[in-house]
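Think of the structure tokens as a kind of shorthand, similar to the way a musician reads notation: each symbol stands for something richer, in this case the local conformation of the backbone. In the example below we present two proteins back to back. Begin with the first one, reading the sequence and then the tokens, and try to describe in your own words what changes along the chain.
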Amino acid sequence: MKLKHAQKVLVACTLLGAFAVTVAFPAAGEARRHHVTSGTTVQETEITDNLHTGKTRPVLRYPLAHQGSEDMQQRLESSLQPAPVTQGNYVQVPATVSAYDDAILGTALASQEQCVKYLLSANPTPDITVTPQELVSYYYEEGAREGIRPDVAFAQACKETGFFRYGGTVTPDQNNYCGLGTTSATVKGAYFATARLGVRAHIQHLLAYASTRQPGEPVVDPRYNLVRDSYGLTTLNKWEDLNGRWAVPGYTYGQSILSMFRAMLRE
């Protein structure tokens, strides 16, 4: 009798232990999903129980700040940030966080609306083949593709074209917004069939100076290879580095572009 009683106790304990393991640890067939939402700084863990209901049930939801110290949270967020990599047709670059950052590569600080307002406040009737909004959108699309700061590049276009009044060697029909190939008062420089191609050439020319990375789109800048062959592994990192190179003598060329960009931020 005692032996049978002991066997029953052993079986009962075994069953209880298996039940506890099943509750505490999801089965191997269950899927786990973790994500952090940047807007709400909330971490959520969900378990899909494929062996039973097939439904997804939330099992953990709490603010990241409750996980520990602020330092720990910062380390966690840093670990979630990937290194700059190419994704599809776009490249990730370090985010621009200051109006006084003078790097050529980066992201936009000014909005597209600020770019348009800045242009129209200086010239209400720019001589371009598309609307100001379309032209600015091209700078943001092409700039994002190559990792070139689009708002500063647009400020450079405003400088080069006299806020799209022209009046010099280059004419509006060329869709040439940065004086590409204009080496003297008698050389008109490059022509581009559309405004988008003109913007793309401008961005690619900046990329030729700032990076050894090939453009994400076929090269339309007629002087891209000339720059790359001349500079080899050397790159120019700052807008001031364009002094005497993009414009000659251009002693304060880059500084003036950045000054225009900062004025744009005040629009």
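Once you have a description of the first chain, move to the second and do the same.
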Amino acid sequence: MHIGLIGLGKMGSNMRTRLREHNIEVTGFDRNPAVTDVPDIPALVAALPTPRIVWVMVPAGDITSSVVTELVGALDKGDLIIDGGNSRFSEDIRHAEEAAVKGIDYMDAGVSGGVWGLENGYGLMVGGTKESVERAMPIYDALRPEGPRNEGFVHVGEIGAGHYAKMVHNGIEYALMQAYAEGFQLLEETDSETLPADERFALDTAAIAEVWRHGSIVSSQLLDVIARALGEDTSLGDFSGVVADTGEGRWTVQTAIERAIPAMALTTALNARFRSRKQPNYADKLISAMRRGFGGHAEPKSKA
């Protein structure tokens, strides 16, 4: 199989590598000349055998929309576009309608795995027709973790369903990160001079995190990231605590509000990120450390 891949950032470049390691031929395009295989999208389309499959892995929003529009103009009937970025599910419906005018198929793929995906594989949540899923299955089998397919891949439903599932996944991620961060702030600040002397404890938070990783119900990959960060510096001095939100958390909360579904923990976690841009604290630093650890995300340059 030979596919096109647009967007060779942190995840896109790792996905290209993993696909090639699993005998999927990939022609990639990125605006960065240091990583691209072809100079532009027309050249990428020309390099692919028909019917073509093009995976889009660029930032959600206007960038994705412009890439899809350009692809629709360049591709032919029977070709397939897969949006593997973090687009909002409602945008998938619009993009699919745009592609359908020319008889081009469309799928959405929610992708989880961060910087570990290259080695361990990605969790995949896919929306689209059964026929499109079957056609693209060699790609998904190459990207997902080794083992039973249903442990790393799920056809969630029709177009938009994959990104809807990934949106909720990321909303949960916000809340989990906030819970860990607030808990470790309680541990870190328990030797404060504002406390009675007999209630102060100088706790080794790195050692506690290590025990929790291996002998506790709260063990997780996020806790693994926390343990590594605290093992390097319990003060988290490299981080300002200014925490970005990249869209999915807001969309999860907005969708919950629109549908009158209580989402209190998720909403609080999102609000905490807003607060971090004005009054960052230790918990916010830990969230920044987690974001860098699992996704390579940099902190915003300012509090604006």
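Compare your description with these statements about the second chain. The chain has two domains: 2-158, 167-295.
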